[in-house]
Amino acid sequence: MSLPFPTMSAEQAAELVEHGMMVAMSGFTPAGSAKAVPRAIAVRAKEIHQSGEPFQIRLLTGASTGASVDEHLAEANAVSWRAPYQSSRAMRKRINAGEVDFVDMHLSHLPQSVMFGHFGDIDVAIIEATEVTADGKVYLSTSVGASPTFLKKAKKVIIELNRGQSRDIGDMSDIVIPRRPPNRLSLSMSHPLERIGKRYAEVDPAKIVAIVETDQADELGGFTDSDELSEKIAGYVVDFLSNELASGRIPSSFLPLQSGVGNVANAVTAGVGKSPDIPDFFMYTEVLQPAPFDLMRSGRLRGASSCGLTLLPEQMQEIADDIEFFRDRIVLRPQEISNNPAVVRQLGVIAMNTALEVDLYGHVNSTHVCGQNIMNGIGGSGDFARNAYLSMFVCPSVAKGGKISAIVPLCSHTDHNEHSVHVIVTEQGLADLRGLAPGERARTIIDNCAHPMYRDYLHQYLDKSTAAHIRHDLQHCFDLHRNLMETGSMLA
Ligand code: 0RQ
């Protein structure tokens, strides 16, 4: 049956987007990202710029996106404002050059901020779906993200109907938009796979101004095989979790895992899966990456609640080919539910996220190099870290061949403070900070996690600092960062 909505090309749909508009696009990582229309908007922007006219949009998504969104639009200089998270080289460059205003925020907060109008009106939403019905049911594709809220709030909606994505993926969604406070009900979820919502998002059909048919796979970046360093980090994590299990601090049935983005996080989850000491487990997480997917196939991962499927094309094909196996093992939720702090606390999640740098007391910087230039953003790490039963941060002890130490006297920017950080792990070892006072924390982090080439410096910094509850030398706490900026190396 044909739909009562105008079908058009991506180029025609792009004409509906005007300079200065607030545009919301689907996507939570490259999973479910809009593709054809943003690419056409980038081309349109370049043409308009060539004629001497301005063209820039304000851009909202669920989280990071595929290349068609951030990379293409940033290269075309087509974005003036961006929220809430990105991981694109081109976009990062423009943000750090002061050419794009970027709002870095907790991902669980985004739908509520949209609902309350913190960013103003949404002029157009561009949402990838596997099916849309005449009465406005929208079956989303490989991520849910903030799309249900974008569909509700946008003045106009463009649907990218992706025929290349299996229609069955849409049924994995479990969509609920919490009521506004003070009438918000508590979320009743006692198991990571418990369903509390509908399988589709809803939109007023009168708002759908275009259907654009596509068939492109998600633009997933490459994952490197785990290397020696991430294997070491994974080894420490596995030993630690095994000890926690043996001591009864983690129940014998284990607790749901959350794992952040990136290769180290991927390798750590793979390591947990390989350990004979850790029982089959569930995940309550925001991104399902390739390693946990393989664990699901082997039976080690019993099921996962996520916000998106950040998977390799062959893994997506595997889901399409064996939907009976995956249907009851994966639930895709909106980001205000997948990352909901109350649920994270209720389920007792074990959170594993990645740090750029950690200071002597356990504060974590996940976002800003030397406190200034953004890498990606806080993403969902804060949603999980603050409320997890066990909050772990992992990172290599050094970056750039040793020129940068990940363990520093004082973080140059703080995303997660000492009160939300329980365990730090590098390839040097693991620091369990629970129950430790500041001085003990500092020595444990230096001895267990810092690279040997930085340990003397850090101990001396501590010893020379004025005695206090938290010892610091305000004259010298950023010497490593200053050296890095002046000479390209922290130990100048
Ligand atoms: O630089 O890309 O030039 O080689 O940072 O570092 O070690 O490859 O690690 O890819 O896992 O990224 C924190 C950025 C780590 C990421 C961060 C340089 C290093 C390299 C990348 P190159 P690695 P990863 C779920 C949860 C916050 C959001 C989050 C992140 C590059 O994990 O964005 O967790 N996390 N969200 O050389 C300068 C330092 C550095 C440094 C590393 N101290 N100073 N550069 N690098 N440490 C996701 C969502 O919310 C969707």
Automatic annotation (TrEMBL):
Gene3D superfamilies: Acetyl-CoA hydrolase/transferase C-terminal domain, Glutaconate Coenzyme A-transferase. Keywords: Transferase. The keyword Transferase applies. GO terms for molecular function: transferase activity. InterPro entries: AcetylCoA_hyd_C, AcetylCoA_hyd_C_sf, ActCoA_hydro, ActCoA_hydro_N, NagB/RpiA_transferase-like, Succinate_CoA_transferase. Residues 327-461 form the Acetyl-CoA hydrolase/transferase C-terminal domain. Pfam families: AcetylCoA_hyd_C, AcetylCoA_hydro. Signal peptide: none annotated. Transmembrane segments: none annotated. Residues 8-213 form the Acetyl-CoA hydrolase/transferase N-terminal domain. NCBIfam families: YgfH_subfam. Belongs to the acetyl-CoA hydrolase/transferase family. This is Succinate CoA transferase. It comes from Aporhodopirellula aestuarii.
